[in-house]
Design a protein that fits this description.
single chain; 67 residues; 3-stranded parallel β-sheet; 4 helices; globular
Length: 67
């Protein structure tokens, strides 16, 4: 049910989520990358996320704000 809701997500703030793994962030981003337009993430994730998911988000026109 949660993953279905992510496919309709257009904006997300992925900060202050201490119990989420990098794999969890990537899974959530892959689920919502079709429609997401803006996402805010902690700057530490910049080096931990795969370049593939970042390229996918940029190709879809998503604006990433590193906080």
């Amino acid at each position: 049910m949660v993953m279905g809701n992510l496919t309709r997500l257009q904006e997300a703030k992925l900060v202050h989520l201490p119990n989420i793994t990098v794999e969890g962030f990537e899974l959530a981003l892959r689920a919502c990358c079709v429609r997401i337009k803006k996402v805010k993430m902690v700057s530490e994730l910049r080096l931990l996320l795969s370049s593939e998911i970042l390229e996918i988000l940029h190709a879809k026109g998503c604006i990433i704000r590193w906080d």
